Amino acid sequence: MMSAPHAFPFPTVLDSPSMRDVVIIGSGPAGLTAAIYAARANLAPLLIEGWQSGGQLITTTEVENYPGFAKGIMGPELMKDMRTQAGRFGTEFLTADVTAVNFAQRPFTLTVDGEQTIYTQTVIIATGASAIPIGLKNESRLTGHGVSTCATCDGFFSKGKELLVVGGGDSALEEAIFLTKFATKVSLVHRRDTLRASKIMQDRALHNEKISFIWNTVVEDILGSEVVTGARLKNVVTGKISEVPCAGIFVAIGHRPNTSLFAGQVDMDEKGYIRTYRGTTTNVPGVFAAGDVQDSTYRQAVTAAGSGCMAAIDAERFLESQH
């Protein structure tokens, strides 16, 4: 286990009328759970939720592995309930984007939408992660015109069509299974000959008659001028190139942490995940990280929520030690 770096004292600046004890950046399971715990501790947290509230679960279909929901719950519904719960205890919400941070002195300063400045004694970073694109030129051009990273958002528009899903993990299989509600056929393209998904998700996909698998294959190009009409595929074993017609391509090959805003402010690993010590503490005293921004291993809603709880408790204890 790594030990926390030496905590050097911070220079301080004068208090401001807009001073907060806790500001949470991010509105997924980690951020909202942190808000619930911080609010119940009478810390009157401010949660900056960005212009797309709810994190990754807002684009997820049925969530079956979150404790307490025996029959499952839709991702957007779960996030709505968590937001309502945080608000019930006194969390204040700000729908805006944080465009700059300064953790070099306390109180910390956050710049919102390039204009407003917020001062705070502690910060909980819970900005989550974003879908990784394939990286093709036509992918960005046709995003919203047949290319998607969200089956929940766009599956309805695929009624009666043939679709491709790219990926081999739980997210990819979840997308594929959900899309079978609308599509006539879903082909899953995976660069290997085995799936990375959990056993239960593999069983569901393999026994779904609407899902077929294209193994050892990558997408070389996405076809279509105005909308997606197909994909050019390459078999990584034989090198064979083929073209497959389809009306939509759903990309589910992974995520990267949303941490670019904090570059140079807190320590990160080589993949951009924030390093934490003894729970959710970063190398900057008073700055904490929870959820997918610091978790490259588990990346589950329940583990994100758990670390959000930890971050709020860590922030509360930090404030008590300062007082």
From TrEMBL:
Cellular component GO terms held in the UniProt record: cytoplasm
Superkingdom of origin organism: Bacteria
EC number: 1.8.1.9
Reactions the enzyme catalyzes: [thioredoxin]-dithiol + NADP(+) = [thioredoxin]-disulfide + NADPH + H(+)
Keyword Oxidoreductase attributed: yes
Keywords, sorted A to Z: FAD, Flavoprotein, Oxidoreductase, Redox-active center
One GO MF term attached to the UniProt entry: thioredoxin-disulfide reductase (NADPH) activity
Domain FAD/NAD(P)-binding as annotated: residue spans: 21-308
Required co-factors: FAD
An example Gene Ontology biological process: removal of superoxide radicals
UniProt feature coiled coil, ranges: none
Pfam families: Pyr_redox_2 (PF07992)
Quaternary structure, from the entry: Homodimer.
PANTHER family in the cross-refs: THIOREDOXIN REDUCTASE 1-RELATED-RELATED
Family the UniProt entry places it in: Belongs to the class-II pyridine nucleotide-disulfide oxidoreductase family.
Protein name (record): Thioredoxin reductase
Organism: Nitrospira lenta
Gene: trxB
